[in-house]
Amino acid sequence: MQAVLQAFGLSEAASLVYQALLRTPEPAEGALSAELGLSADEVRAAYRELAGLSLLRSSWDDPLTLRPVIPELGLKALLAHREAELLAHRQQVEQAQAAYEIIRTESASGRRFTHTEDLVGVDAIRDRLAELGARTRSQVLAFIPGGGQSESARRTSRPLDEELLHRGVELRTIFLDSVRNHQPTTDYARWLGERGGQVRTVPSLPMRMTIVDREAAVVPLDPERSDTATVLYGTGAVAAMCALFDLVWSGATPLGDARSRDPHGLSGQHYALLRILHQGETDVVAARKLGVSERTVRRLISELMDLLEARSRFQAGARAAERSWLS
């Protein structure tokens, strides 16, 4: 059984201690060290490891005493977590295969028809966007992450958007759900809608992106820097960006529609947060990707733990995986 437990990610010492506790849930002080040939420090470290994996719980009679969680609950939750990790890894492999096919197709169609233009500096990016906008004939598609937009960003975008809409260009914009709580950005989005623009929101966005006439795409050069960008030209690369936009657009909620919760009591933000945390990201990164504060992230996590009746984040992740909430 020891080797089997190590397959769950337990250390040798933790495996031995857990098995011993299943046989004798409340051993006398020092008994485990004598029985297993482990030092007191090794036993304490094993206890901490088991508690972190939710394989130990506080006794109902004495909260200071830790008792083993039965395998039907504890190990089953670990198994679900492992299965979720494998599923995530399989999805990453599938995404890599899809990316390979896109790059291979683009290369096969002739590299001379594809080129990129790197932009460094906010002025360079805005100037290029203005030039592309002036040449736009039919459509502009945009991902706008980051939550509520600053006053300077709205002031810069307004005349450009107004000129596009006045020329009859179709303008589709996707913001984060969190902008619904930022009145200035909501007012700006409604202003777009009143002039013919289409605005939808989603819980999270993969990146900032602008696509012009489905022929050129402006994407981040460095995802960690907002003052760099790359302009992609070429059928294969831009087609992939368009497919990504169309996929996100089809699942987005029109700004005028109220966000709803599913029968489980979860909103789109809850599901997006589960996926972000499952990838091992911190609360800070989750807040940035959702366009909300860290305080809001902690509130959403608390709501998830209540809905899942979980006592720890790990247990919440395992139970979410059991219920297929991570897919």
UniProtKB/TrEMBL annotation:
Q: Which UniProt keywords apply?
A: Coiled coil
Record flagged with keyword Ligase:
no
What are the HTH luxR-type domain coordinates in residue numbering?
Answer: 263-320
Which BP terms in the Gene Ontology apply to this protein?
regulation of DNA-templated transcription
- Cite the InterPro entries for this sequence: Sig_transdc_resp-reg_C-effctor, TrmB-like, Tscrpt_reg_LuxR_C, WH-like_DNA-bd_sf
Coiled coil where?
A: 79-106
For this chain, one GO molecular function annotation is: DNA binding
Q: Does the keyword Nucleus apply?
A: no
Q: What is this protein called?
A: HTH luxR-type domain-containing protein
State the organism of origin: Kitasatospora cineracea
